[in-house]
Write a structure and sequence with these properties.
By secondary structure, the chain is an alpha+beta fold. The protein folds into four domains: about 90 residues, Arc Repressor Mutant, subunit A, CATH 1.10.10.10; about 140 residues, no CATH class; about 70 residues, Alpha-Beta Plaits (2-Layer Sandwich), CATH 3.30.70; about 60 residues, no CATH class. About 40% of the residues lie in helices and about 15% in strands. It contains 20 helices and twelve strands. Strands 3-7-8-5-4-6 form a six-stranded antiparallel sheet. A two-stranded antiparallel sheet has the order 1-2. Strands 9-12 form a two-stranded antiparallel sheet. Helix 8 packs across helix 13 and helix 16 crosses helix 18.
Length: about 425
Amino acid sequence: MAHLTARSGYEKLVDRLNRFPQGAPPSDLLYAILKMLFSEREAGLVALLPIKPFTVQQAARAWKMPAAEARKVLEELARRAILLDVEDREGQQHFVLPPPMAGFFEFSLMRVRGDLDQKVLAELFYQYIRVEEDFIKALFTDGQTQLGRAFVQEAALPTDNALEVLDYERASEVVKTASHRGVGMCYCRHKMQHMDRACKAPMDICMTFNSTAAALVKHGYARQIDVAEALDLLRQAQDENLVQFGENVQRRVNFICNCCGCCCEAMHAQRRFGLLNPIHTSNYLPEIDWELCNGCLKCVNVCPVEAMTLVSANDPRFPKLRKAKRDEEICLGCGVCLRNCERQAIQLRPRPRRVITPVTSTQRTVMMALERGKLQNLIFDNQALASHRAMAAILGVILKLPVVKQRLARRQMKSLYLDHVLARGH
């Protein structure tokens, strides 16, 4: 980066972003993106912020400026959806810097804006994510615990209760139990629209929930909706053969995107790196009845990750006859294929082994950090030790890990205190 001054604000910001479990590999394209979203002063200031949620007072201390001045900077960044401003249960305002994805990359294209050139930004995103691929590979394939999971389409489930489906596996339950609901423009299709490559799937259909929805609605990046409208949007997405790709947690899911196979980054990652399990699948697999299948290609054409193909039926009477075959290694278990099979030749069956979904975002973040060698960043954050509750939450998750992963945590932390806490747990 010869064109940058030594340790510029942007370089410091890149270092800060890569303390997240899901970071952003440095490249000229990344620096170009950050220059569009941040001034250099803002980049330098954001680089000093903690990973965990923080108050105005904590930011002011980190920035060595009066609280009133710090508040103005934070509120301006929140207005542009660089930061999220949320209220805790006691009504106290906190700010948090979301990761690039799912985070401020998407938010920058979740509405039409006149304060930046979204066409240029879209092209930069495309080159950084789809062409260079270091970012999307790191985001979706490092470690075993991933950011997102696929929801099964509920209309594809049998009506005779033949499958045990837990509440957290249903997108409708996410909608019904959320404290806030918002709908915004699909970042992926908006990006491709600027490049004249977007499909005809609905644009205003990606949903956020709970504190994330509240923050995005507050600043106009999402529109507040009620339960009924959110359920209608889910049905519309399913009718359009879109996949519900949501946050990989059981409780308080913060987003569900409705993804097409052509524009959306998660589906692209599944096609490119499917054997590395970039998306946590549903707990179900489509099972094909070859007696009923006539090789019509409908399931192949609608599968967003190319998990369905046609193969020879090996019937000597009809040498050209082909039947559908599912690739279990990359199948999401979303049920899109089943809903398009007019011959009812496809049924959902439980996977041989249940897919484990982290219970909370704290548990998922700790697992991701642990597997990616970044656990120390969560513990020794800028302001982490000022919050005993935050420390307790992280250690509480570690204590519930399998012994093998606790040992990995010990090696990463190199902390006598953590060794002592873990030793007391056994």
